[in-house]
Amino acid sequence: MSGLGQIPILSIILLSPLLGLAVIQLLPRQRASWLKIAAVAATMVPLALTLWLYADYDRQQGAASYSETYNWVQAPLKMNVGGDWFFSFQYEVGLDGLSLPLLLLTAIVTSTAALAAVHVKKRWKSFFSWFLLLEFGMIGAFIARDVFLFFIFFEITLVAMYFLIGVWGYYNRERAADRFLIYNGIGSAIMLIAFIMLVNTAGFHIVETAMNPQYIYSGSYADILRNLSDPGAYVNLPAESAGGNPFALGETKQWAIFILLLVAFGIKLPVFPFHSWMLKVHQEAPPAVVMIHSGILLKLGAYGLMRFGLFLFPDQAREWASVLAILGVINLLYGAILAFRQQEFKLVLAYSSISHMGIVLIGLAAFNEIGMQGALFQLISHGLISALLFLIVGSLYERTGTTELPQLGGLARSMPFISGVLLAAGLASLGLPGLSGFVGEFLSLLGLFESMRWVTAIAVIGIILTAVYVLRSVLKITFGQQREELSAIRDARFIEALPMVVLLACIVLLGCYPSVLTDTMQLSVGGYMDLLLATRAGG
Amino acid sequence: MLPSYLTMGAILFCIGLYGALAKRNAIIVLLSLELMLNGVNLNLVAFSKYGVIPSLTGQLFSIFTITVAAAEAAIAVAILIALFRARGTVLIDAFNRMRR
Amino acid sequence: MDFFAKIAWIIPLLPLAAFLVLMTLGRGFRRAGAWIGSIGALGAFVLSLLVLSERLKPHAIDYSYNFSWISIGEYTLRIGFEITNLTALMLVVVTLVGLLVNIYSAGYMASDERITVFYGYVSLFTFSMLGLVLSDNLLSFYLFWELVGVCSFLLVGFWYARPAARAAAKKAFIVTRIGDAGLLIAILLLFWNMPGHALDFTSIQSIFGGHGGSFTDGITTVIALLIFLGAVGKSGQFPLHVWLPDAMEGPTPISALIHAATMVAAGVFLVARTFSIFEAAPAAMETVAYVGAFTAIFAAVIALAQNDLKRILAYSTISQLGYMMVALGLGTMTGAIFHLFTHAFFKALLFLAAGSVIHAVHTQDIREMGGIGSRMRVTAWTFAIGGLALAGIPPLSGFWSKDAILTAALEHNPLLFGVGLATAFLTALYMTRLFVLVFLGKSGSKAGEAKESPLVMTIPLIALAVLAAIAGFVELPWNGWLSGWLTDEVIEPHGSVAVIGLSIAAGLLGMLAGWLLYGKGIAGSQPLASRLPRMVKLAERKFYIDELYEMVFVKSLRGLGACLAAFDTYVIGGAVKLAGSAAGAAGKLGLRLQNGQVQTYGVAAVLGVVAIAVVVIGRRMLS
């Protein structure tokens, strides 16, 4: 622990982007370089701290090692029953093997995206303000351990993204931003309903004190999880028990909450029919923002699905495992086939994201440790890969003014470095061993194969299709005859090459030595799997 | 006796309501509003005399109402005149600026 | 005793180091490229030789080492390396051919501006191929299997500006990936069915060799067939052979190294490594044999009708790989490995000699060549040795290995023997045609300026020619040293005079026919095309397999894509639009109510009050 218990390290990580935000407010708005340096520096702080945390993470301690809890809102309620009644929402942050890798991913991708923001041409001050607010929201969402805290951070990311897309995007930016906000707004409304239902039932618990018993409606994740998994808790007693039990969460209600959560996070992920908003975002948002969107925010959906959907309602999720698996396969194949058709490279990548998120669902549907690890690994790996790809898209667009495939070609001649990185990223995306994409894909499929052989066999077809569309688009850009008007463009500058190299190095590292990630995730995943197995044994 | 008064009040109120909702001339609408108020006043007075617990409160209250109604009518007419000056009409259809 | 086996993991790392150094240096250091690449290959070769020398002692003990790659709960995925006689042999073959190709390329690629990148890719390939050879389990085998695939892809597409190279590279990767998918499923099946989730070859051998295990015949057959699917993709067997001829768009040294000697043989190596699974599944064995036999004769027929120097050799490679598959299907794993061994040398030789010709005349069309033999003596002679070895003329190496396979075929399956013999005849025929058209006869249109290639290119040719000539002596019909060494058993001599006689006769007849048809020209300048126009056309167009695939797979994928795109736009997009316009319509309705007329609001309020009153009173009256 090395004295970490005293330092609120998570809060420091969380608040450092806000500090950067404050500094940026003090800078003059015309000074682009100052603003950029300040923003990059502000993203470096969480990166450094998270790296240190990752190295220091005490695997044996598990989830509890860094958590912080403060009372945040404690609203007394007037009730006719004796004792003190409260609504209690904590500022409660914590860390486990599920959130730590995602936190690190957030830090890495945001830093590289901040570097990639050299392409931003206007209103730097407000851009970086929103950008840092977005980082604040993402970090918060990953470490929040209270459902309402999570919700608030989740909403912060929506607001920040809305402006980042709507102001700094490409031609149709405002429509894209609107569509983003509407879809995600609906998603988070549904999520809020589910959370309120949860707090009203599973969140209820009684604290015995010397004076009066305290009756608390709590949003704390730990309380909710404990109540749900404890067969003696109020939430699990039948509603008709002695004197009536208003806190009972019957079978129907549990299903309702589970499905609401599935839809809410499914929109974010995105799961097959809810994907159309994401295409617009990929197409219209500025590259630095898409790096974050595709690299992290989609993962937020998967993270929410795991933490709130799967972990809280393991029975429902297990019963729907085949639904999840089939949705995953649909995502995988549907995304791949449509990616094959697109003429716009950004749309190829958008559909490819859908396809890769299908693998996450496949891994989750496996319901064993291998699949769960595979899904998590795929999250991290796809975060890095898509961030890298959109980094390249940004550089490409800056030079050629287009990302339409028919207008590109032969760029390997004038920009060998960027083309090489693009090829490597493409290969990582199609799951080449030695690069990170393979591990997530392989583990997910391996996991699912235990229970659903035929579904997995169909999913393997998706891997062939992935190769088809990735090679088609990447080779279209880099190989072939170079067009006349593209011959004058230059290769990457140092400031562009640096984040590319960093991301690529991470991808190679994870691909060659996945244990660096899987070992960290293992304790949490193993722990949750034990929990899931225990409920199965109990129920 | 009470039902007759109440019926009378209700009839007054309904006539007023109809006028307030259906007439196009703002002056008529104002008059109709007065009619509705008077319907209510009639009720108050009737209850103060023939109610379960007769007391003066009802009559007192109706005095208040009349006062307030007078004040209201004064303000309303003032607004109407201002509107008429601005728009050159007292037809209520013309006053739909709230929509925009 | 097994010192070198223990440090065998260094062997692949040397080319990897070369790759990393070359990638860091970039394009600037042109001369350094060849040196660094060759030194890496040389180091690997020397170490491999030392490993092999250790293995030559009687009863050497297999050495393997592995470590945990991913550990998840009770499951562990391991990777590691293993030294057996088979892997030691393959190590030497790969590093030797790799070294010679490295040296050769210094001349062949000298004028290419990206020579450093070329050497980088070659080194990466050598690393992956060695890793594949050394793997001790299917998982790490699969990792390297994909890596060699990607290296092959990179090198086929090395001249990226050519559209043909781009298409060929893409095709090579995607077609082999279909096979890889099969292998992947096989691995998944094995993982969940093997006791202890072991994937290493030793466990597989002991389980399927009949020491316990819970595999039903059905699953065993499925696993074997899926593994074979992987091999079919990589080794260019029918029906996944289409990528290999196109892969000739790559530089010729690459065709020699990857698409003749090493990578394409990986499929054969895979089947040999997992041979116990096949032995436990007779149906799969038969499939392997028949697919191999069909591929052998099918590709030989196509080779006869092609006019591109390298494509002829490519189809010849496919045909010979088919031969190896036949051997595997007949159960003689050693015969397959023996043929793999000799084929690596003479086919690499043929490709490098062909490269030497192409380097001199700048064309690949054999109709434009002719009469080069007198100007390029070394090339012509070495090519002749390679051709004779391929045609199966004793005492060159190809004869012995082909003989071993034919002997086994005669024992088990006369039909396959007949196919093999016919293929041998065709092989001799097309090789004679090739040699005659390229090196003999009148000077062709482009043959005028041909000069002998520099020493750096001819020395590898001579070295390979020597090997192609003598490599067959490791196993003779009356002395099965190689098979004894590989299987660690005493092998009965299996020679058969009849087979030897028939095999020689087929080879000689083929050569005679070729000489008569193309050398003497007894049947005109287009001997076959004028007699059998349909047949020749069919073979020339490769039996329209590419067109068929284009029709069936590419078109249908495109069609499916179009359907789904329409679905995406109209159904899903339509639903979104519908939701949006529904909200808009609701807004319009509200707007109509909100017309600014206070009276309308009043009416609405009154109606609301009435409605509430009706509900409240109605409920009271009902109850």
Automatic annotation (TrEMBL), chain A:
Topology term for the membrane: Multi-pass membrane protein
Residues annotated as domain NADH:quinone oxidoreductase/Mrp antiporter transmembrane: 144-466
Keyword list, A-Z: Membrane, Transmembrane, Transmembrane helix
Entries under Pfam families matching the protein: Proton_antipo_M (PF00361)
GO molecular function, one term: NADH dehydrogenase activity
One of the GO BP terms on file: electron transport coupled proton transport
GO cellular component, one term: plasma membrane
Protein name: NADH-quinone oxidoreductase subunit M
Membrane-crossing residue ranges in chain numbering: 6-27, 34-55, 98-120, 127-144, 150-171, 183-207, 255-275, 296-314, 320-340, 347-367, 379-397, 417-439, 451-471, 492-516
Chief place where the protein resides: membrane
Subcellular location: Cell membrane; Membrane
InterPro entries: NADH_Q_OxRdtase_chainM/4, NADH_UbQ_OxRdtase, ND/Mrp_TM
Similarity field: Belongs to the complex I subunit 4 family.
From TrEMBL, chain B:
Class in the EC hierarchy, top level: translocase
Topology of the protein relative to the lipid bilayer: Multi-pass membrane protein
A GO molecular-function annotation: NADH dehydrogenase (quinone) (non-electrogenic) activity
Transmembrane segments: 60-84
Cellular compartment(s): Cell membrane; Membrane
Function: NDH-1 shuttles electrons from NADH, via FMN and iron-sulfur (Fe-S) centers, to quinones in the respiratory chain. The immediate electron acceptor for the enzyme in this species is believed to be a menaquinone. Couples the redox reaction to proton translocation (for every two electrons transferred, four hydrogen ions are translocated across the cytoplasmic membrane), and thus conserves the redox energy in a proton gradient.
GO biological process, one term: ATP synthesis coupled electron transport
Annotated protein name in UniProt: NADH-quinone oxidoreductase subunit K
Annotated catalysed reactions: a quinone + NADH + 5 H(+)(in) = a quinol + NAD(+) + 4 H(+)(out)
Family note: Belongs to the complex I subunit 4L family.
Subunit annotation: NDH-1 is composed of 14 different subunits. Subunits NuoA, H, J, K, L, M, N constitute the membrane sector of the complex.
Keyword field: Cell membrane, Membrane, NAD, Oxidoreductase, Quinone, Translocase, Transmembrane, Transmembrane helix, Transport
Organism of this sequence: Paenibacillus pinisoli
Enzyme nomenclature, EC number: 7.1.1.-
Lineage: Bacteria, Bacillati, Bacillota, Bacilli, Bacillales
Cellular component annotations (GO), alphabetically ordered: NADH dehydrogenase complex; plasma membrane
Recorded superkingdom: Bacteria
InterPro entries given in the database record: NADH_UbQ_OxRdtase_chain4L/K, NUOK/Mnh_C1-like
UniProtKB/TrEMBL annotation, chain C:
Domain NADH-Ubiquinone oxidoreductase (complex I) chain 5 N-terminal: 69-119
Membrane disposition: Multi-pass membrane protein
Domain of life from the UniProt record: Bacteria
Residues passing through the membrane, by range: 6-25, 32-52, 83-104, 116-135, 141-160, 172-192, 212-233, 254-275, 287-305, 312-330, 336-358, 378-396, 416-441, 453-474, 494-518, 559-580, 600-618
Record localization: Cell membrane; Membrane
Location of the NADH:quinone oxidoreductase/Mrp antiporter transmembrane domain: 135-426
Gene Ontology CC entries for this record: plasma membrane
Keyword Iron among record annotations: no
Annotated GO MF terms: NADH dehydrogenase (ubiquinone) activity; NADH dehydrogenase activity
UniProtKB keywords: Membrane, Transmembrane, Transmembrane helix
One GO term of the biological process aspect: electron transport coupled proton transport
Protein's UniProt keywords contain Nucleus: no
InterPro entries on file: NADHpl_OxRdtase_5_subgr, ND/Mrp_TM, NU5C-like, Proton_antipo_N
Stored Pfam families: Proton_antipo_M, Proton_antipo_N
Protein family according to the UniProt entry: Belongs to the CPA3 antiporters (TC 2.A.63) subunit A family.
Name listed for the protein in its UniProt record: NADH-quinone oxidoreductase subunit L
UniProt organism field: Paenibacillus pinisoli
